[in-house]
Fold:
Amino acid sequence: HRSPLNDFQRLRATQLLAVPAEPPLAPEPGSAEQCAQRCTTSLDCRAFHHERQSQLCQLLPWTQHSPHVQLQKNIHYDLYQKKAFLRDCIVGDGTSYRGTRATTEKGLRCQPWRATTPHDHRFLPSPRNGLEENYCRNPDRDKRGPWCYTTDPTVRHQSCGIKKCEDAVCMTCNGEQYRGPVDHTESGIECQRWDLQHPHKHPYHPNKYPDKGLDDNYCRNPDSSERPWCYTTDPGREREFCRIRVCKKRPRPQNVTTSCFRGKGEGYRGRVNVTVSGIPCQRWDAQTPHQHQFVPEKYPCKDLQENYCRNPDGSEAPWCFTARHSVRIAFCFHIRRCPDELGAEDCYHRNGEHYRGHVSKTRKGITCQAWAAREPHVPQISPVTHPEAHLENNYCRNPDNDSHGPWCYTMDPRTPFDYCAIKPCCEPLPALLQTLRDAVAFEECGRRDERLQRKGR
Amino acid sequence: VVGGQPGNSPWTVSIRNRAGLHFCGGSLVKEQWVVSTRQCFASCDADLTGYQVQLGTLFKDPRPGDPDQQSIPILRIVCGPSESQLVMLKLARPAALNARVALICLPPERYIVPAGTVCEIAGWGETRGTSDGSVLNVARLPVLAHDECNAALRGRLKESELCTAPLRAGVGACEGDYGGPLACLTADCWVLEGVITPARVCARTDQPALFIRVSLYVDWIQKVMKM
Structure:
């Protein structure tokens, strides 16, 4: 049930460009898993390109660490590289280590394996044993891990002191930010890749949770469990925690707020403890009326005090278990959101249609796009279409008399336009709200089957 | 919705997070655009990958295979003018309009809903035991005159807010309804006059309920869809 892809690290939309002595192999049809199988069994294959659209794969004899090679963005390719060649930590005794460390733990330079001076030896490179250049290796399963002969005549060989992967990167709190290379569970079972649905089907698709770091088959904590875990390649065991060293220093909580909440409210430390429908929250250290996993001692960084609204699992907003049996959880959206806009740098009169100031930032702090530019947004309003509107450089303006004030196209590709960090000079005159003197006709909207309304359920 | 009853509101959509949990409501104003409230979203450039809107079903959590149900990923969020508390969500593809899914009309710019007009809120939010919380609930509320409401709120009513009168039975929106519509019947069509925003307490019997006055932001809504 282990996928051959488990030995590979995937880089999406990436191509490996090399200045090769000889061109790589021609692409062949195959799924990513078939490509991985071929690359695994090929001695000199270290990576492969997989074209998702055409389902083609091209085996490559180099990785991003090879000389004269560089990574490049390319939406047609996914690049898979053998983990052994990328890791800078070791699994077990490091026999499979194929990294590029070439100095010993005491800083001595390693002697190339091909050379027999200053130290003669019998470990000569072959296509199978992975001995290469002067990189640290472990050809004789030495318990201390990868080593090498040194270029110091007085020191025949020395360990390279490469850390074990579970110690290489430590985790803080519950490991939700852990992005380290451990890919085995605490009982030693290899993890299943997050982008595969076998042997275990699961909801944590990497595309769906881009901020959880669900790379390859590394241990992660996407659901705010006690610590990082993974689905296992053992069909009989769905998921299991991983053993990862806890950092000595606990990080200072970020974005702490008490009277309002910012973002999803993970840093909210206020004292609201009643839901908006008036139900008191359940204490976090209680298991009734609702049993739950968020025991305060197991979540030291989440400040699960009393029965205050908190957000220990990255939900949409602070929430709590409620004291009512029929309502398990309730969001605390009634807590005010903290303002997240820049302070106004200037002011405008009326709608700002005559504003000629030099503010060129949106209220979120994004730089404005020049009015004459056509990137990242092709403007519908420009100095050509509105010559009289003084659309200079990238200054905020109001060429279309927008009732909400000066605005600009933005340099953020995802935000075509936005209002600026400018406020009305004086309290805005009450908007002329009109009643419907003349009849209004609506087209293709606002109609429904009214029968359902009258007939009660 | 507290004090409501199961009903049909084909423009009301359920907004679901990555775990598929309903957390807010919205209104379908164009096949590919939903209006909701800023309070429901982490930020104006939140990554909404994995978030979806659900429409075409009366059930909050329909069984798989519900024929009319549509689930459409959300492409991105656009925040309204600062004091509007509005957001617009662009959908990954247009919703298919049918008997269960319809657009709600937008009001004329800066239109005042006459006091006493009976409007309707809708949502899958908390019912506090007053109705079946597993289906869409609707409730009728009368619009309160601006001055009267301002007096009741001791002068704290904003220009961008619209009020409905409190009902003795305790009728109103609640947690899970936020972002959903206050729809009023005008010229035989249901018009999106208000958007539900969080209050400190649901369905109060002694204070007006506040909604975002959509008619003040219709120009922005049209501009976003045009841009």
Remarks:
- DSSP finds four helices and 17 strands in chain A.
- Residues 210 and 419 of chain A are 28 Å apart (CA to CA).
- Chain A touches chain B through 62 residues (CB under 8 Å).
